[in-house]
Amino acid sequence: MSLLFEARARVLADLEARQHATPAAVSALETAVSDRQWWAEQWPDGVIYVAGLVAQDVQDALLSTAGRWPLCLDCQEGPAHALYIQPDLGGPDPVWVCEETGQAVAELGRLSSPGRAGPTA
Fold first, then answer.
1. Is 10 inside any structural domain?
2. Cα 30–10–75 angle (5° rounding)?
């Protein structure tokens, strides 16, 4: 399933971009990919949604252990807040969206690193 490998690579790139690719986060990613492999086998037409769903699964797993990820770096005012995957089902073209403004920040797999000038999408 090449789309599963692509999903893994895209989420890992975003974890690395935000310096969050810890052993626990990568383990959560591996679990999400494994779980979604079963899901995609049950619903082959749904494989186009896998990348966004894996990202959401990793977000959920990290929330309980490391807090919200990824945080929005674009908004300078107000409290820290997270990005979320849009569309809700995760695809077919998932993007990270600011939970405060609703603006697209980056395609999945293309988050910018802290300190860089804006998204790389």
1. yes
2. 115
pLDDT in tens, 91-105: 789 999 999 999 999
Structural domain includes residue 69: yes
Strand partners, 71: 82
Closest by alpha carbon to 94, among 57, 40, 62?
Answer: 57
Counting other chains too, the contacts that 74-80 makes at CB distance below 8 Å and 24 or more residues apart are 74/98, 74/101, 74/103, 74/105, 74/118, 74/119, 75/100, 75/101
Domain of residue 75 covers: 2-107
pLDDT per residue as tens digits for the range 5-19: 999 999 999 999 999
Phi, psi angles (nearest 5°) of residue 104: -65, 135
Return the structure tokens found at 100.
Answer: 């405060």
Q: Which two tokens stand for residue 11?
A: 């989420």
Residue type, 60: D
